[in-house]
Structures are given as structure tokens and as C-alpha cells.
């Protein structure tokens, strides 16, 4: 499955610091993780948050990383919370 559609498929993800291959990969890795039955995705980008405001009224930000978010964009809705 890709962002352009298609059905999910079983495959390999080869990593050497960064992703170097996706699909059938020959050989054995130094470390292998069996993700059978799981969904492997890249990090998601959260396009609309209010972390800029939440940073003022909350002693801790709600973690997005537990939902697969690796990048959060703030301040793009036209509202500014900075004094």
C-alpha cells in the first residue's frame, strides 16, 4: 500500500541509518524485527495543532509521538498565542 493507493502487502524494510530499501530484501539483517500482522508506516506529519497555545496553559504537551507523529506544525492557523 502506498499513499497513492493499492493493497497492503508483506515486505521488508531495510535500514542503514535511514530507509534504504522497501520490498523483498535479500540477506539477513544484523537486527530483525518480526512485524507480521502489524502496519509499518513512516512518521506522520501533524499539520494542525495548537501546541503553541497549549505550551502556555499546560505543564506538559499531549504526546503525538505515541500516535506515530514525528513532526508537528504549529502557528499556521492565523492565531498567535505569544505575548
UniProtKB/TrEMBL annotation:
Name of this protein: Amidohydrolase 3 domain-containing protein
InterPro entries in the cross-refs: Amidohydro_3, Metal-dep_hydrolase_composite
One Pfam family linked to the record: Amidohydro_3
Entry's Gene Ontology molecular function annotations: hydrolase activity, acting on carbon-nitrogen (but not peptide) bonds
Domain Amidohydrolase stretches: 31-79
SUPFAM superfamilies given in the database record: Composite domain of metallo-dependent hydrolases (SSF51338)
Domain of life: Bacteria
Amino acid at each position: 500500500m502506498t499513499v497513492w493507493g493499492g493493497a497492503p502487502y508483506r515486505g521488508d524494510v531495510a535500514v542503514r541509518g535511514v530507509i534504504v530499501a522497501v520490498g523483498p530484501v535479500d540477506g539477513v539483517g544484523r537486527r530483525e524485527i518480526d512485524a507480521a500482522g502489524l502496519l509499518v508506516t513512516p512518521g506522520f506529519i501533524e499539520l494542525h495543532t495548537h501546541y503553541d497555545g497549549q505550551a502556555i496553559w499546560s505543564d506538559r504537551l499531549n504526546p503525538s509521538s505515541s500516535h506515530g507523529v514525528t513532526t508537528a506544525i504549529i502557528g499556521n492557523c492565523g492565531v498567535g498565542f505569544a505575548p
